[in-house]
Specification:
By secondary structure, the protein is an alpha+beta fold. It has a domain of about 190 residues: Penicillin amidase (Acylase) alpha subunit, N-terminal domain (Orthogonal Bundle), CATH 1.10.1400. It has 23 helices and 31 strands. The strands form 4 sheets. It has a 12-stranded mixed beta sheet. The radius of gyration is 27 Å and the shape is globular.
Length: about 850
């Protein structure tokens, strides 16, 4: 397809006409006639609703990819793009205002367009694939707008009552810029640490918030850097900003707004072939995300290689970001997890009429006003009241964050100063994302491709038939030595020249990398890869990579189970699947022995005797100690433990961290669950400050509160009337696009399980009626290799692949996902044809 044909395919007036021709074979065939576009695209849809897209060229395949994605997920595409452009309130009304404000303040639109220009200039072949992808999307959009196809789910009168809009090629890069920002976001944690220092510094001094619950790290011991032994670093004087007056609702609102953009966790691991039943590597990956940000990933297979092109790749793609994020091609299988390399900092700076005072210079501030529309009740889409955001940028440094426009006024910076957010993404840079990864032919090529992916905050684990690799390519700023006033995990002093980035990045030898080492496996789960946090701090290490709050429970469980499997050997594919679905509570392993010690002590301590004499406490205690420690939806013990862990955390921390306690529990409760566990196990020096009355009293007080909760909610402590699934649900709202309500189902898992499902225990500072989770595995993938060394992948994923309630593939995968059952992701043409439900063929109207 040449450029003029692409432009014609992108034209909003393009109309595709279904000819309703059905073949005499085993599956229906739709012939699609396009006035412009590729000739010879074939889309075979299998019994899971997965499209396998074949074409004569790479460009043809990407055209078909865009067309079929828009057919299956048009509302999700539309709303993700609107979120990136700051136009979601045109559809959602007030529900989209916060997101639109963020889009304009952080300016994903203009930075994404600069990335697009870089790709067009420097990598025109890849840019051409995105042009074709957009042309395919617009072909389907034009068909819907012309009435040749029904309005997709979400657009009709029973939804938001509007028509889809045409994409520009640059929009793909804007969406990817927003996705990168979300993956890189550390500002919410820097805000938290700043407020914590201001309000509770004395309490938190010995808490060691970075200390993990488990000392499991992405790299094995011999692969980790040697800790730095150094004298105290010279520190400039730094004035701690005065404690602000903070309305709780404003702080919660700000936390909620930032939290919409941040990933919680993912798992991936690989086992070397010398430990497996096949003699070739196994790999597993399961990214966890929240639905109301990006929605469900999309299963797809792209094949131009059969006709001599570059691609034969299958797996899962993020809607709006072309390419396979996790999956395989003919040689390599891979899966990412998010990593917490710190590429975003926040400084307090003085801004005057002359500009922003950055260390010893004054930099002019660029100011503009951005308009967006808030749809009102009864208004048509795109109509309503005008709203404005004043955007201020300091070129070369970052964006000024106007907190009054993302929540209540919360003066994080000192009086007379403002907060400036810097991000490595505030630059024109390559935006290859997954495309380069999709056609690698070995783990060596995989490793080299990841090294070039400096814009992506991912831990990539990959394997071919010969070996396994762990690699990170993220460009992490090289910073000056950490000192008071220049701690990158909190607001920094903008008058200190050493607090600013040097313009250099850490060298590649300071990136996490592994080939499995002596232990013969690789595992990551969003933890500190280097072990820098083992001592509770990150200020005495050979270099600064990031500030890690992760407890390490998931990684510890994965490592211990892989070690056990290898020792018992050989490892089977079924064991890999079982580990992905593992619901063992690692938090229970850390808390229940302390409770048992308290209960035993109470029997001999008159001061505690009242606890053990209470039959309701005895019943609750028996439930917990007899429980198998699995967070299963049919388990009464799982419900009791989840209540106990959260009520224990409130007992320990709520009086010591007023305001911040509620904020963090609303953001990610797992961080305070970790702090509580460390406190009751005596793992940091200030534990006595938060354990008033002693650890035994605290543990038994929480048990009494748990018994009261069970009686209040279910009428008795006895488990006859309740199970975990009565309260713990996964909610699918937003799974097929922001703003769509899709209901909920009971689900396994918890905050500390490998099979993650972090439910919110509190609502309005009281135990919630339901513990709703939308942080779950978006897909599960387990890969191996056949006798010829080609990957074979088995998957499950929630809901389905098609966002149409009338489609059999709307929620046909849900039961398999809930029960942990896997199906092969088809790859060979003969097996695809044998399983085919339907074929779509796209022909140019003038083709012969």
């Amino acid at each position: 397809m040449n450029q003029s044909e692409l432009e014609r395919a992108s034209n909003i007036g393009l109309v595709l006409v279904f000819l309703a021709a059905w073949s005499m074979g085993c599956n229906g065939v739709d012939e699609v006639s396009a006035p412009a576009g590729p000739d010879g695209v074939e889309i075979i849809i299998d019994s899971m609703g997965v499209p396998h897209i074949y074409g004569r060229t790479d460009v043809d395949v990407f055209y078909g990819y865009g067309y079929q994605l828009a057919t299956d997920r048009m509302f999700q595409l539309e709303m993700f793009r609107r979120q990136a452009l700051g136009r979601s309130a045109e559809i959602l009304g007030q529900g989209g205002v916060l997101r639109d404000q963020q889009a304009h303040i952080f300016n994903w639109r203009d930075w994404g367009r600069l990335d697009a220009a870089w790709m067009a200039q420097n990598e025109p072949e890849r840019y051409g694939l995105i042009e074709a992808y957009v042309a395919g999307i617009n072909a389907r959009v034009a068909e819907v707008r012309a009435g040749a196809a029904p309005l997709p789910y979400g657009f009709g009168a029973d939804g938001y009552d509007f028509l889809p809009t045409t994409w520009e090629t640059d929009d793909v890069y804007v969406v990817q810029k927003m996705a990168a920002f979300a993956l890189d976001l550390t500002v919410e944690f820097e805000i938290f640490m700043t407020f914590a220092d201001q309000l509770f510094g004395q309490v938190l001094q010995g808490v060691e918030l970075f200390k993990p619950a488990r000392t499991s790290f992405g790299l094995s011991g011999p692969e980790r850097p040697t800790p730095l032994q150094t004298a105290a670093l010279d520190a400039p004087a730094f004035r701690v900003p005065e404690a602000p007056s903070m309305p709780l609702d404003g702080l919660l609102h700000l936390a909620q707004g930032l939290n919409t953009l941040r990933n919680l966790g993912s798992n991936n691991w690989a086992v070397d072939g010398r430990h497996t039943e096949t003699g070739m590597p196994f790999l597993a990956g399961d990214p966890h995300m929240r639905f109301d940000y990006s929605g469900l990933v999309y299963a797809v297979h792209l094949n131009s290689a059969d006709a001599g092109g570059r691609y034969d790749v299958a797996g899962f793609a993020f809607v709006g970001a072309p390419g396979i994020a996790m999956g395989h091609n003919r040689d390599v299988v891979w899966s990412p997890t998010s990593n917490f390399g710190d590429v975003m900092d926040m400084w307090e700076v003085r801004i005057t009429d002359e500009g922003a005072h950055i260390a010893d210079e004054v930099v002019p501030v660029v100011t503009r006003e951005e308009r967006f529309v808030i749809r009102g009740e009864g208004d048509a889409a795109g109509e309503g009241s005008d709203a404005f955001v004043t955007v201020r940028e300091v070129p070369g440094y970052g964006a000024v964050v106007p907190y009054e426009q993302v929540g209540s006024p919360i003066p994080i910076a000192s009086a007379g100063r403002e907060a400036l957010v810097g991000w490595t993404g505030y630059a024109q840079r390559p935006a290859r994302y997954f495309l380069e990864l999709n056609d690698v032919d070995s783990v060596d090529a995989f490793e080299a491709a990841v090294d070039r992916m400096g814009e992506m905050s991912y831990n990539f684990v990959g394997a071919d038939a010969q070996g396994i690799r762990y690699r990170v390519g993220l460009d992490v700023p090289k910073r000056a030595h950490i000192a008071p006033g220049r701690q990158p995990w909190r607001l920094m002093d903008g008058s200190d020249p050493k607090a600013w980035w040097s313009g250099e990045f850490l060298s590649k030898d300071k990136q996490p990398r592994s080939s499995g080492g002596e232990r013969g496996f690789i595992a990551t789960a969003n933890t500190d890869p280097f072990g820098f946090t083992a001592n509770g701090g990150v200020d005495d290490d050979p270099f600064y990579w990031g500030a890690f709050y992760s407890p390490g429970w998931r990684l510890s469980r994965i490592e211990s189970e892989l070690t056990r499997m290898i020792a018992e050997g050989p490892v089977t594919l079924e064991q890999m699947m079982d580990l992905q679905n593992d619901t063992h509570s690692n938090l229970a392993d850390d808390l229940l022995p302390v409770l048992e010690a308290a209960w035993t002590a109470a029997a001999d301590d008159p001061a505690l005797a009242e606890w053990v004499a209470n039959p309701d406490l005895q019943a609750a205690y028996d439930l917990l100690v007899d429980w198998d420690r699995k967070m299963k939806r049919d388990s009464a013990g799982a419900l009791v433990f989840n209540a106990y862990a959260h009520l224990l955390t409130e007992t320990v921390l709520s009086d010591d961290l007023p305001l911040l306690y509620d904020v963090v529990m609303n953001m990610h409760s797992v961080y305070l669950l970790k702090v509580t566990m460390l406190a009751v196990n005596g793992r940091f020096s200030s534990a006595d400050h938060v354990l008033q009355g002693g650890v035994h009293t605290v543990m038994l007080t929480a048990l009494a509160r748990t018994a009261d909760f069970l009686i209040d909610r279910f009428g008795a402590v006895t488990p006859a009337t309740y199970r975990y699934g009565d309260l713990h649900f996964v909610q699918f709202d937003g799974a097929y696009g922001m703003g769509l309500a899709l209901g909920e189902v009971p689900v396994d898992g918890g905050e500390s399980t490998v099979n993650v499902s972090a439910g919110r225990f509190y609502e309005d500072a009281a135990p919630a009626e339901k513990w709703i989770s939308n942080w779950i595995p978006m897909d599960r993938l387990v890969g191996t290799f056949d006798a010829h060394g080609q990957p074979e992948v088995y998957v499950n994923f929630p809901m389905g692949n098609v966002a149409d309630p009338e489609s059999p593939h709307f929620d046909d995968q849900l039961d398999d996902w809930l029960e942990g059952r896997y199906r092969k992701l088809l790859f060979e043409r003969d097996e695809i044809l044998a399983d085919a439900e339907k074929t779509v063929r796209i022909r140019r109207a003038d083709a012969r």
